[in-house]
Every structure is written in structure tokens, then in C-alpha cells.
Specification:
The protein has about 230 residues and is α/β, with parallel strands linked by helices. It has a single domain, classed as 3-Layer(aba) Sandwich (Rossmann fold). It contains six helices and nine strands. The strands form two sheets. It has a seven-stranded mixed β-sheet with strand order 3-2-1-4-5-9-8. It has a two-stranded antiparallel sheet with strand order 6-7. A hairpin with a 5-residue loop joins strand 6 and strand 7. Helix 1 packs parallel to helix 3 and helix 4 packs across helix 5. The chain is globular.
Length: about 230
Amino acid sequence: MLAQASPWYVHALQRTTAGPAEALTVPARMEWTTRPGGGPGAEILAPDLHRKRLLELGCGPGHNAAHLATRYGAHVTGIDLVGLQVRRARSHYGRLNNLTFVAGHALHYLQASDEHFDAIYSVFGAIGLVAPELLLPAVAQHLKPDGTLAFSVPHPQRGGRPPSTSGRPSRDHVTLPDGARLPIARWDFDADRWEKHLARAGLWLTSTREFHDAHQGRWPTTLLITARKP
């Protein structure tokens, strides 16, 4: 599907038309969950991020990338499938140092790149939306030894649903700013299945955490996974 016809493009278009993209204050913390202020911060990426090279797969409007570049002095590249999102990110934070935003598909970017990163992360981004048997090996190839992969995905049990057992993507939806819902495909795995995919890619699972949002019922809403390249 072309980015211009995707739900992600429609989502970005509605955000853009709702108000002008303008320079923003850099967020005070990094967010991994559906509830701001919940969960860990940037410390899960590395003990010291100063001058480290980081890659975000699915940067959206750039909030987390800006936080890492400004508060920690990291060199951050944020990639997003939708050009409108990249334009928003540049409008918000393009004035900052150590920060680059790129429009493109996460897998294609990795396949074409010769860069290596100290950490790669995804916050409800490309991981879970791109076939893991393709994306995770590409991630591993571009991580430096002892580098970290961290990603948060919608919890597979959110709303009481069972996690996928087939290895194939499940049907899900994205809710647009106007409340409409558009269908998407998502790899809705539990921690055990993610661990198997990580191991096949040459990455070692280091932690799994689940988080709740009291406004969304009793089921967990976010699954946060970290892994390391030996």
C-alpha cells in the first residue's frame, strides 16, 4: 500500500489540518506507553547516551527523538513512513542539533544503510507493523556489538483479546483524530513469541514489561521489550 493511501497518512493529514505545525518545547521525558508519565525513560537504551548514535523506527512527530538529542546529547535519526509526519517533526524540532528526520520505510532504510547504531528503538512504530522475520535481522545487522534494541507495542491482551498464535499478522485498526477507525495489519505477539523472533535474528532478550492504563480497563495496554546484540 502506498504511504499516501495508508491509514498513517490519513492520521498525519488530520493532525496537520487540525492546526499548524510549529516549534515545540522539547519534552522533559521519553514515553514508551499509552499513558504519559508511566513506565521507564531513556535509561533503558544505555547507561550513558552522550554522543551515542540512535535510530528511531517510526518517529512520528519527533518528540522522543528530540528529547534524546537535547537532554542526552545523543545523535538521533528518526525515520517515518509518512512524509507529512517527517515535515511535522522538522517543524517541531528541526532547529535542534544532533537530530535528523528521514521519510521512508524502516526496512528499506536499514537495507540501504551502512550505518551502525548504539541503540535502535520503536515506540508503537515499525516493529509490530513490519514482518519481524525481515525487520529484526535488519535491525541486528545495524546494531553495534552490545547495542540495545527497545520497542513498545500494543499489548496482545489489550481489551481481553488472545495473542496471535499463527505467526501471521492480525487484523487491527488505527483510530484517527476524528474518531474514525481504519484497518491495519499488526504482528500481535506475546513476549515468548517475540523472544523467538529476536533469537532467530541473533538478539538476546533482556527484559519484558507490561503496563496498564486505568482509563482503558483492567487489561494491560503496552508491552515493552528490550534486547541486546552480543
